[in-house]
Amino acid sequence: MPSPRYWREIPARYRLEGGRCTACGKALYPARKVCPACRGTDMEPINLSRRGTVVTSTVIRVPPDDFVSEAPYAVAIVETPEGARLMAQVADCAPEDVHIGMDVTLEFRKIRREGVSGILCYGYKAVPVEAAVPR
Amino acid sequence: MRDVAIVGAGMTQFGELWSSSLRDLFTEAALGAMRSAGVDTLDAVYVGNMSGGQFVGQEHVGPLMVDALGVAGVPSTRVESACASGGAALRMGFLDVASGQSDVVLVAGVEKMSDGADVTTVLATASDQETEVYHGITFPGLYAMIARAHMASRGSTEEDLHWVSVKNHRHGAMNPRAQFPKAVTLDEVANSSPVADPLRLLHCSPVSDGGAAVILMPLEQARRITDRPVQILGTGMATASLALADRRDPAVLDAVGQSARKAFTMAGIEPADVDLAEVHDCFAIAEICCLEAMCLTDGCSAADAARSGFSALGGRRPINTSGGLKSKGHPVGATGVAQVIEIFEQLRGEAGDRQVRDAHIGVTQNMGGTGASSVVHVFRRV
Amino acid sequence: MAGIVGYGAYIPRNRIRTETIAEQWGKDPETIKGGLLLQEKSVPGLDEDTITISVAAGRAALDRAAIDPRRVGALYIGSESHPYAVKPSGTVVIEALDIGPEVHVADFEFACKAGTEAMFVALGLVESGRVEYAMGIGADTSQGAPGDALEYSASAGGSAFIFGREDLLADVVDTASYTTDTPDFWRREGEFYPRHGGRFTGEPAYFKHVLSASHMILERTGLKAGDFRYAIFHMPNGKFPLRVGKTLGFTREQLAPGWVVPTMGNTYSGSSPTGLAAALDVSDPDDLILITSFGSGAGSDSFVLRVTDLLPERKGLAPTVASLLEGPRRYLTYGEYAKYREKIKMNL
Known about the structure:
heterotrimer; A: mainly beta; 5-stranded antiparallel sheet; 3-stranded antiparallel sheet; B: alpha/beta; Peroxisomal Thiolase, Chain A, domain 1; 9-stranded mixed sheet; two-stranded antiparallel ribbon; 37% helix
């Protein structure tokens, strides 16, 4: 994507920065100007926890051109403890193993590239907690 | 507001139409509609088209199309709501006639998808670029997520999906304008190649070229043109968040339900009054979710409707007698208008082998993205 | 007095076994394994690079340091596989770790020594008082040419060290650097794979610089091999660090925890730094540790560290190197490895 747009999105993509509506408490990711729940316009910044639960998922077997080498890969909607939901690829596991209710951590990864000469775009991917490192 | 009717229709074959350009598709459908209505002049044109810009590098499609039709000068606007562009165009045309502003309005839908664009990427622009597409999700992938959520929370199965495709192909086999006018078996669907778990190739509507057009007039004037006008009794539109993650429940298409309730209320009908409907089966799961949201499967679960015969030709409430998007084809902007043409012909008794008996009230439901927009129209045989 | 206030490591979860690579090229796996003392190595996913590895290692270091990231005044990443030829890796890492924008960032390059370089400069900046905390990271996802000896060892991973003046986990007792122009291993601009001088990379390069820097620091500190608990040397393969360690008088026990190359491979700028992290994971207060890196081109940085009383309570705040090496992982076929390492020509 063109770099100014990517740059604007860095707080959301790199730090999971979202917003919480001060009127109704809803957690929004990415942040918005108007709360979809109560139409409030006063937001405080929040950083989502780097973990969550799978709400639904699929395995992409016919990928877009940019993701040909990565297919098949799982993509999931993950809900974080704050109650926000986000879409993320699921990495470091067999895609078929991803299931509704699975606990995941969120890790910083390279999500895509703009061709051979464009910018590299980063963000978070989900990794199943069983596949993450034990201390 | 005046009563509005459809008095004529025209559409191209749907399929990979290598010899037809975007403007060719429009012109063929529009000329067909004008001839079928016997009209020579137009007061306004609305063109449903998802993305002339991304598919063929062409924006400013409104004036381009009327010029191609030989009537440059006529007010003409492109209407866009992703895959609901056609239905949204009909809604605009309806409001133009109902308001008294125009008397003869052409509503067309057109899409040229096979000219070499990266279709997967273009279609994905109907979903949220920043939060969904960025992560490598595809359109089938989003509907696959809906399917998985629906199966987990509402008990539908993969076999339920197969039956939708089987039924729609059985209908489409009787539609000479369909892209794939042939039946498919349950096994063929079940064994078709996986696209995004749990969706397979034969659960997914194809990439298509096509154009479809109708002529709208005020009902009193319509009776001078044809003894079988079809009245547009109700129109309803609703929206939802683009991103699936922002929906209340990924298994439920709230915008579809809302748009249906608005249209039905305006038309003064209940779901039980609907004799047949064309519903947006971009993927097999979509037909199940839409029927559920619109409450069109009384006495039977939406997931069972195809398998049980409820939604088949000859059943309680035939759904997608045209073959649906799956068998008829899905030139994105044209689909909403093609749905209208199927209901138009059914209500006039002109549907040939696909004819539903005693069809009085028909409904079309046209949806954009993963249900971020939905347009429903109710039609009545006059 | 300045030293390490936090440290952390990250190793990708994919692996490939030495025999899988050997069989691909028709070589005898046992000969290779015996000759290089390598069993397997880490492989980065298509979605991993020096930047993502640095973020993970940096996060772990911040967790152990238990400081507000905003107090980090400088961040340096040493690598020979920075994702961009021009555009720093460090700027992405600071944003991801919520460091800055009042921070000094630079990328370092010096073959496999770039990690200790970053550490050396971070330490110096803190010692001078110019910044309160500085992070030095060594991370790499370097390539080994197909069929070349380096294909068995070139792997991916990295470690991060935060330097400060208070609440140290390990004091830096002294440093020493030894540098000459020695063309033993290089990669020209635009080339995908590096090249090397074969056996020339041994005596005149690796051994000369590692021994020189190590001798320098032992002389300066007046310490002998027997005074140390652990010693870590750059690990281009399994044999070199054992040989140089023995030459310097260290025992197998002293070399063992830092000798992570048999299962990790050579993470280039992350090599000796990750060995150091592994040694810290099992160290006790008052232990002395020696680390000497080596970067082709060529040079070596040596550090002598003394572990403090604070290390035991902070170790557990982030994953240990052993848990990363022995934790959940997946073994790839050569085809998957070639795909992940982009050795396959795609038509895009």
